[in-house]
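Support request, please re-run this one:
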Amino acid sequence: MDFKKTNAESSTVTRDIRLFDEPTGNLYEAVAIMAKRSNQIAIELKEELQGKLAEFSSHNDNLEEIFENREQIEISKHYEKLPKPTLIAVQEFIENKTYYRNPSKENTPLV
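Re-run finished. Output below.
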């Protein structure tokens, strides 16, 4: 997913908790879903950032490293400006873009 094009706020916003209770019927289950999705997003963003910064890694110290550091700094600043993974996860949950399932509710035996 392209996290750069998300509708998530870049800062914390107070929200009505009824938004989270409706899809699952349980506020705590909704928070757990958003927390797991937030961890997934954080891992994806971290891997993407490390991949981009790995292109600039070198083992030699020279004058070119100064210019490379500027590019690394610009990439890092770009990722710092993105919304935090928790805010992206909350926005995805509100927009019903998060897939989740509860195996304990699905496997109820029929009598």
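The chain has one domain: 14-100. The chain has a mean pLDDT of 79.
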